[in-house]
Amino acid sequence: MAESRKPVISVHDLAKNYGELKVLRKIDMDIYKGEVVSVIGPSGSGKSTFLRCLNYLEELTSGEIDIGGVSLKGCKGHKKERWNGVPAVQPLAAQNSA
């Protein structure tokens, strides 16, 4: 039987608006342990806004983000203050030490 992998970061139907300006529209992404992901695009395309949403530095207009089993859906007020952002990973230098 094949092992069922769960993403460490899962983004579903993410949208972020600033008033009438729609910056992010229906973003879907699953990132699995060991994957390396780049967010690329022209200036003003929403790259920084997307990363700020992942760290909950921006409140989502709609959609859901799950990081390490913690859902940010509906995360507001005091719940937002308890969120520490993306789970810490061991520094690369420590991983490659002998």
Structure description:
The model has no long low-confidence stretch (mean pLDDT 80). The longest helix has 8 residues, at 47-54. 11% of the residues are buried. It contains 3 helices and 4 strands; from the N terminus they run E-E-H-E-E-H-H. With 98 residues, the protein is of the alpha+beta class. The chain is globular and about 40 Å long.
Summarize the structure.
It is built from three helices and four strands; from the N terminus they run ββαββαα. With about 100 residues, the protein is an alpha+beta fold.
From the alpha carbons, calculate the radius of gyration and give it in angstroms. Answer: 15 Å
N/C terminus separation: 35 Å
Strand content: 25-35%
What count of helical segments does DSSP give? 3
Instruction: Average the pLDDT over all residues and give the rounded result.
Output: 80
Q: In terms of per-residue confidence, which ranges show pLDDT below 50 for 5 or more consecutive residues? A: none
Q: What general form does the structure show?
A: globular
What profile does the largest beta sheet have? Answer: 4 strands, antiparallel
Order of helix and strand elements from N to C terminus: EEHEEHH
Helix proportion: 10-25%
Structural class: alpha+beta
Tally of strands: 4
Give the strand order, joined by hyphens, for the main sheet: 2-1-3-4
Characteristics:
single chain, about 100 residues, alpha+beta, four-stranded antiparallel sheet, 3 helices, 4 strands, about 15% helix, globular
